[in-house]
Amino acid sequence: MSKRDYYEVMGVEKSVNEADLKKAYRRLAMKYHPDRNPDDSTAEEKFKEVKEAYSVLSDSEKRATYDQFGHAAFENGGMGGGGFGGAGAGGFGDIFGDMFGDIFGGAAGGARQRQRRGADLRYDLELSLEDAVNGTEVNITVPRMSECDTCHGSGAKPGSNPTTCGTCQGAGQVRMQQGFFSVQQTCPQCKGDGKIVTDPCGTCHGQGRVRENKKLSVKIPAGVDVGDQIRLSGEGESGGANGINGDLYVSVNLKKHPIFERDGVDLHCSVPISYSTLALGGELEVPTLEGRAKLKIPAGTQSGKLFRLRGKGVKNVRNASFIGDLYCKVHVETPVNLTKKQRELLEELDASIQEGGSKHSPEESSWADKIKSFFDDIVA
Fold first, then answer.
1. How far apart are CA 40 and CA 242, in angstroms?
2. Does residue 101 surpass a pLDDT of 50?
């Protein structure tokens, strides 16, 4: 069953700002929260749907990725290379905090330990134009903090276990009374873990994480462009024991191409051409990403003329049926290192053309008339 559009789930327009998005989330989360709808599986599913939609739309990078690639960016085998990315920035606990704790059970709500999430990472990937246009699969190595294999993220020496924090009683949070208000904050003793390591692991020294160089295979969809990001869910830094990993965002850059310049789905190239071909017309062989193509040059073509080859550009990354065009700009190449004979022939040709005046050089004649008129106006 296909997922509903995240903006539809939240009941907002695509242009919604952050404040209105947050208001919509609060309203829907309150409406469908499981504590308010016991034994109602439909409400629970809607609550999860709202939470998932908000976790993407409230994060500027994830929202931009979703706007560009849709659900495919966060599905297995799609742009993300993995499933939906768990609790991200702006998650349920971060937004509501004490509110649901007070409404749905007071101290019981405050005792819920927040799940730690590892940091998101960014990897800059430089691709050739051909790989970006056609799609490819690349292997990358990413330095990151990963879960310690010795203690499995607990930070405790094998055979021992972390002890429950005596300050927060394992909740990871403590409440501070400030006048009439009760404020919940991260426990200063265990830093929110709810447990304290008394006998640390020798491999990670009690951190639960170690630095490693992770090798990953990344699928590059056809048509990606500079600035596009590919999200690999759970391939960021480890969140430690009982935590969740952050995500890895592979940011695309393109190498300079010796022939083509890219403009979205269109390609541009500059083609040098002889003076005689422009004047007499002919057929020119030009390069495309698919091979060679023939370009017919009409007689009397001016230098700088732009020729369009339909469907020889780039496939749209979001709509494979739409392909851009290739624009070839021809420019005359001035002959150099002329022989005496060649110079004489050109001088003879130039003299012959000058005799014809505007018949052979309409733009030059028009320009000369404009210059004469300009100076006549100044003298007058």
1. 28
2. no
CB contact at 8 A, 16 and 7: yes
Kindly write down the DSSP assignment for every residue of 295-357, as one continuous string. Answer: EEE-TTPPTT-EEEETT-S-B-SS-TT-B--EEEEEEEPPP-S--HHHHHHHHHHHHHHHHHG
Helices (H), ranges, 5-155: 6-10, 18-32, 41-57, 60-69, 92-96, 98-103, 107-110, 129-134
Contact yes or no for 265/132 (Cβ under 8 A): no
End-to-end CA distance of the chain: 81
Q: With contact defined as beta carbons under 8 Å apart, do 117 and 239 qualify?
A: yes
Residue 31, amino acid? K
The CA distances from residue 340 to 162, 334, 337, 345, in Å, are 93, 16, 10, 9
Distance separating alpha carbons of residues 146 and 216, to the nearest angstrom? 14
pLDDT of residue 369: 67
Cα–Cα distance, 380 to 376 (Å, whole number): 6
Please indicate whether residue 302 or residue 80 has the higher confidence score (pLDDT).
Answer: 302
Residue 91: pLDDT band with limits 50, 70, 90 = very low
Q: For 83-113, what is the HEC assignment?
A: CCCCCCCCCHHHHHCHHHHHHCCCHHHHCCC
The alpha carbon torsion through 176, 178, 180, 186 (nearest 10 deg) reads -30
Q: Is the pLDDT of residue 130 over 90?
A: yes
Residue written as token pair 């040709």? 349
Strand pairing category for 266-273 and 326-332 = parallel
| Predicted confidence band of residue 98 (pLDDT cuts 50, 70, 90) | very low
* pTM, 2 dp: 0.58
In this structure, what DSSP letter does residue 166 have?
A: T
pLDDT of residue 366 exceeding 70, the answer is no
How far is Cα 26 from Cα 155, in angstroms, rounded to an integer?
36
CB 275 within 8 A of CB 182: no
| Domains of the chain, earliest start first | 1-114 (1.10.287.110), 261-334 (2.60.260.20)
Reported confidence tier of residue 82, pLDDT bands at 50, 70, 90 = very low
Class of residue 57 by CB neighbours under 10 A (exposed 0-12, middle 13-18, buried 19+): buried
Distances (CA, A) of 278 to 298, 344, 348: 7, 21, 19
The answer to whether residues 82 and 13 touch, using CB atoms and an 8 Å cutoff, is no
Spacing of C-alpha 60 from chain mean position: 11
